[in-house]
Design a protein that fits this description.
With 291 residues, the protein is mostly beta strands. It contains 5 helices and 22 strands. It has a 4-stranded antiparallel β-sheet with strand order 1-2-3-4, with no helix packed on it. Strand 3 and strand 4 form a beta hairpin.
C-alpha cells in the first residue's frame, strides 16, 4: 500500500483521490453518487440509490482509485451490512456483507478503502477488512475511537480516549504509542557516534530517499548506512497537494544534536493522502522515529 488513508465521519460530503473526486447529491428520496476525473473534471460514474429513511442524509461511501464503494446497513427486512462497488461507467454491484466476513456490526459509522483493504468503524470499534479474502479483523480497541485513523501496509494508527495506538498486522498486537516512546532508549546522534563531540553534527537534512546532507560528511554517511532508517525514509512525502496545487517541500527530516548525548529529530508535515481530514504522516513518523 502506497500511503495512509485517514477516515472522517460524515462532516463534509466529498471524497478525493489522486485520480478522482466523488460527492453524494441528496435529491428528495434518493442519493446520487457522482465520480469525476481529477484531471479534466469529466463525470465517469453516476449511481442512484434510495436515500436513508432515518436521520442520516446519505449512505457512507468511499473511493479507491476510480472505484466507488457504498455501504448500506442491515434492516429487519434485509439483514446484512452490504458493501457495494461501481467501476467507471458501471452499475453498482454487491461485493459482500460485513457479517459474512466475520464482523459483528453494531452502528456503522464510516470507512475507507485503499488497494483492496477496507478499514471501517462501527459502534466505536475499528476493523480491518481484506476484501479479496473476505475476512474482517477487529483491531482490539477497548475504548471508543476519536479523530483520524491512518492505515498503511504494516498496520493502522488510531486514537482513542486513552491515547494513540498502533495495530501491527504482522503480530496482531495493539501497541500503546505513548508508552512505547517513553520506554524507548535514548539515542545518540550520528555526529556524536563519529566524533564524540556534541557540536560535531549541527544538523542533517534528508533530501531524497537515498541520502542525507550534513556539514560534515561522516554523519550523513553513517545515517545512509542504517538499513531500518533507510527503509522508513522511503515512505516520506515530498509535497503537499491541495486540489490541483502541489507545494514542493524543501526538506523532510532534520536531525540536530542537543549536546548532552541526545538528538532532536524533526519531520516536516506532508500530504500523505487523505479524504477531508488531511493525513500529515503520523504513521511514517512512527516508523522513522523507531528506525
Amino acid at each position: 500500500m502506497a500511503h495512509d488513508v485517514p477516515l472522517r465521519f460524515d462532516t463534509l460530503n466529498l471524497r478525493i483521490t489522486q485520480a478522482t473526486i466523488a460527492l453524494a447529491e441528496v435529491v428528495e428520496d434518493s442519493n446520487i453518487f457522482h465520480v469525476y476525473a481529477a484531471d479534466d473534471g469529466a463525470e465517469i460514474t453516476k449511481i442512484a440509490l434510495a436515500a436513508p429513511t432515518d436521520e442520516r442524509r446519505r449512505w457512507a461511501y468511499a473511493l479507491d482509485g476510480t472505484t466507488l464503494y457504498v455501504v448500506t446497513p442491515a434492516t429487519p427486512e434485509d439483514p446484512g451490512t452490504k458493501l457495494y462497488k461501481a467501476s467507471p461507467g458501471g452499475d453498482l454491484a454487491l461485493v459482500t456483507t460485513l457479517e459474512s466476513a466475520g464482523a459483528d456490526v453494531g452502528v456503522f459509522w464510516d470507512f475507507a478503502v485503499e488497494d483492496g483493504t477496507m478499514v471501517f468503524v462501527e459502534s466505536g470499534r475499528i476493523w480491518s477488512f481484506d476484501l479479496a479474502a473476505n475476512q474482517a479483523q477487529w483491531l482490539g480497541n477497548v475504548t471508543e475511537i476519536v479523530g483520524t485513523i491512518n492505515f498503511a501496509s504494516d498496520g493502522v494508527v488510531f486514537a482513542t480516549v486513552d491515547g494513540m495506538h498502533f495495530f501491527e498486522f504482522a503480530t496482531g498486537q495493539v501497541i500503546d504509542l505513548a508508552a512505547s516512546i517513553a520506554a524507548a532508549p535514548v539515542r545518540r546522534s550520528a555526529g556524536q557516534r563519529e566524533h564524540d563531540q556534541p557540536n560535531a553534527q549541527t544538523s542533517a537534512e534528508i533530501w531524497d530517499s537515498e541520502s542525507w546532507l550534513s556539514a560534515l560528511p561522516q554523519p550523513a554517511q553513517w545515517l545512509d548506512a542504517q538499513p531500518h532508517l533507510s527503509q522508513a525514509t522511503r515512505a516520506l512525502a515530498w509535497d503537499w497537494k491541495s486540489g490541483f496545487t502541489v507545494i514542493e517541500l524543501p526538506w523532510a527530516l532534520q536531525l540536530r544534536s542537543v549536546g548532552d548525548g541526545t538528538s532532536h529529530i524533526v519531520m516536516q508535515a506532508g500530504r500523505y493522502s487523505g479524504l477531508t481530514t488531511f493525513d500529515v504522516g503520523f504513521a511514517v513518523w512512527i516508523r522513522v522515529a523507531g528506525g
